[in-house]
Amino acid sequence: MNPIREEEAEQRVPLMPSDLKNNCENSHIPYADENDPEESSEQNSNGQPIKLPGSRKQSLSSRRNVGLTININSSNPVQHNGDADSPTTPQTASDNSTKMDTPPLPLPRALRRNSISMPSGINAIEELEAFRIKHQMQEQEPVVEEEKTPSRTDSVVDDISGSVTISIPEQKSVPTIQIEKPDDDSDDELEIHGKRRDRFRTRRRASIAPLPALRLNNKEMLASDFDSYSVASNQASITSVNSLASLLREKMQAFPQMIRKKKRETKDYKIKIFVIIMFFMIIFLIGFAYVGYHRKILTYSYFEKIKFNSNDRILRILSHDEREVISGLLGKTIGMDNKPYHCLEDHRKQDGSVCIEWNGIARLYMNFQDMDVFRCYTINWQSLSPGNHPTDCYELQRNNGLWFGGGMTKSNEWSLSNDNFDFAPFSSGDLKVHQFGNGVKRYFINSIGVAIQVNDKTPLHVSVNTTTNEFCLKARNDEFTFVNHLTELPELDYKICTTEDMKSLHMLMTQKSLWDGLKEADMAVIYSLIQEPVWRTPHGEDMESLNETTIYNYSEDLIAMGLPLGHILINEFWQANVGDFTVDQRRFPTLNKTIDLLHRRGFKIVFTIQPFISTDSENFKEAVRKKLLIYERHSERSIPALTRYKSATSAGVLDITNNASVFWLKEKLERLKAEYKVNSFYLDLGTGYNLPHYYQCRQTLDNPDMYAKLFTESLESVGFIGVSTASTVPKPPAFLSTPPINSSWSGLKEVMSTVLNYGVIGYPFVLPGAVGGDYALNKTMSKMISFYSLGEPPLPDEELYVRWLQLMTFMPAMQFSHLPTYYKGDYVKNLAKDLALIRQQNVIPVLRKCLSESMNEGLPLVRPLWMLDPHDPACLSISDEFSLGEMLIVAPILEPNVEEREVYLPQGVWKDGIDGSLRKGSRWIHNYKVPKDKIAFFTKMPDNTRF
After folding, report:
1. What is the pTM of this model?
2. In what order do the strands lie in the sheet with 648-653?
3. With contact defined as beta carbons under 8 Å apart, do 404 and 445 qualify?
4. Which of 222, 305, 658, 732 lies 20 to 30 Å from 939 when distance is taken between CA atoms?
5. What average pLDDT does this structure show over 101-110?
6. What is the layout of strands, in order, in the sheet containing 421-425?
């Protein structure tokens, strides 16, 4: 016998008690250890050893000290006749366990045995072990699969485990016992048809079902884990394929455990997901804390209220209550991999500025100016390489208010926050072609009290909302607008100011007091422009359409209409050629007498003048000879640079930086005033783009808009009521005119948005165009309108004219070309008189009251609603209402065939201008009725007013 097998047999735990049932005593089925094949000396005819009685070993059940109950279910037992081929009769095993020489091995701790049901026809389990060992030790013939024969199978299922079943078919010969052995690399396997197979496994293997799991020491284990303590593995249990009841019972008993296991697996799955989520959350929080900590370390606090991270170049400015009011990214063109350094001592300024340098790319200076409630921070970028263009971008956040400034843009949006355009040179131009209109200012203001002002020497380009919600400032030279390189490399220089008081911020940023140097006569002109209209003489596309008779007849119509008399504005056609600065005697032979008559009737006469001198004018030759004109760049000063403007197809431009040119022009204008008793002039300066492309003045201009500024300042003593272009606020009584407006409903909206924008950026006195529009075009212009001499538009539609007239009633000044009497019937004429009365009683008193405030603080006369209450979200979103000062709110109709609208009133008590009722503020008025002959306006009442 194999010593290993013998040692294993001795270590096994006894499985059968000594009191076996009596029905197993007469069984002639040999036990596995009844006779040792090696000890048998006798052999049969086939050479096999013969078992001798009385030579049996100690039973396996006795050695294992375990009692195995074997239930034999035999309905037809066969009597044993002592023949080897006859069937055996089941009987109980003899009680040989009491004769054991050695004490039984104890069971392991906490081990609970599975009860095992033995098949019928087996006398004792020892024969199974002996039979298996016999086949292992002997040289066996190849196993040939047996033929299937009908057989009867008795199945016994243990009630405790519910899974161990051993089935033995009854045969007339010695029964074939099938025992499943787990597949391993033991010597019990043989090579059969190219596959390794256990000798004890047959086709009946399909009937074997695994046992359910057991629990040992609170640990779930399969029955196969107990092979070292059992006679046969639970996995080697044999199930009868013929016993349907046994199979069903087995499945029913295993079903609850399957449910419990599935629930347990689902619970484990949820726990795993929860653990994974918590793991990633912890990683995220750790990373967030790490980044935030390092950002906080790298973000330095400069001048108390400014936070700047030099690595990320993110700037944040805080208000007095530590609230962020503006944030942006500085130096956007600098790569993030470039590291900042502190400037060398030679590059630092002595004014307390912080200096940071990116080696070979750019240098940044930051400084602070504290004026009690005002805090201004200066930002100055100096480029250190030709390819670098300093660029700073600031966020346009809705919760941080609306941004305004710069001037009117091509899209006619009243707020920069709603606009969208790529980088464009910041210069005055024609809105049909260029990005900005005739009135510009390097000033951007937020509705919550933040403002940015850019230095005039910066070659400024502006972009809004191109890719992200931000507006950007860039310093870059080009070939026209900023062709005069004021510095070797471009510099971006501006300041940011914050305060909680919008009025004080305007006073600080826009303009100092406008009273400086103001004369009593100048104030009289301002009052005159507010109270009386400007009457623009009608004209066609050529100068022949304007003559002395036209002016006289026009004044007659004004007197017959019964409206207040005012200023008669005569365009540049009063001279034969642009730049003559003398009256055309052919068309105006007795103009001096006509003007005397108009003066006696109460009119004031205004001539339009320009800095352009046509090449057809006699003054052009004189100006070239005296070198009074702007000359071509990189050429002699005697070669004038030419351009075109309106009716002048070829013209030179006076060099206003030349003192000789200023003296020459003033002399001609003073002579004109003395001879014709002209009251004042209107300066038609064109725009920055109307200068010659290769212009060069005696003194270098910072930008093209500097020309209009110098021209206005040089002629202040001559006296004028308005200018067509401005980059700074002209000295009163000059008003800034709106650009030419098309005669259409879209043009009506453009008038309102333009006046609002110009007021916000610091132009308190605005002169809108003529009622009904300045020209009429039914198609989009592809060229600048200023290149053409466009005549006045035809008589507009009556509804458009009426709505236009209603809006102009509440403007700082009114200008007419078409008269109300030109319409048939008395409807428009009577309406004009009613509106003139409303202006006299309700509008002019408010304008005169706000005039002093505008002169002192730079606040506009016409304001958006958010200036009344910047913290009201509704006021920020409204663009079709405005206020005069803080006392009057106007809600005009700007669409055709509309007689009702939505009206919003800020906080306070307001008196309805149509029906005289009182209305509470901070609320909307829905479907407010506005008839064709009415305009909605509301006057603010004292705070203690009760309904």
Report:
1. 0.69
2. 612-614, 648-653, 642-645
3. yes
4. 732
5. 44
6. 299-302, 306-309, 314-318, 324-329, 391-395, 470-475, 460-464, 421-425
